[in-house]
Write a structure and sequence with these properties.
InterPro entries: DUF1272. This is DUF1272 domain-containing protein. The protein has 74 residues and is α+β, with helices and mostly antiparallel strands. Helices cover 16% and strands 11% of the residues. It has one domain: Herpes Virus-1. It is built from two helices and three strands; from the N terminus they run E-E-H-E-H. It has a three-stranded antiparallel β-sheet. It is globular and about 35 Å long.
Length: 74
């Protein structure tokens, strides 16, 4: 199951699990749309392709909440 990380690893922008606009690689590194574009849609950590992260809403989000550990070093 996806961890649904709460922020962009590059700029710290909030990325709620129930909203579009997050991009992930196969290791779940997470970036906002602006940073994914700036990175040419390749993960700077593993070199993998960044793809749209699906959203998690409603009962699914309530049963399986998003991760709360922020990754942005700032």
């Amino acid at each position: 199951m996806l961890a649904m990380r709460p922020d962009c690893e590059r700029c710290g922008t909030d990325l709620p699990a129930d909203a579009p606009g997050a991009f992930i690689c196969s290791f779940e590194c997470t970036f906002c749309a602006e940073c994914a574009d700036a990175l040419d849609e390749h993960c700077p950590n593993c070199g993998g392709e960044l793809l749209d992260r699906p959203t998690r809403t409603g009962a699914a989000l309530a049963r399986h909440p998003a991760d709360t550990a922020r990754r942005f070093p700032g």
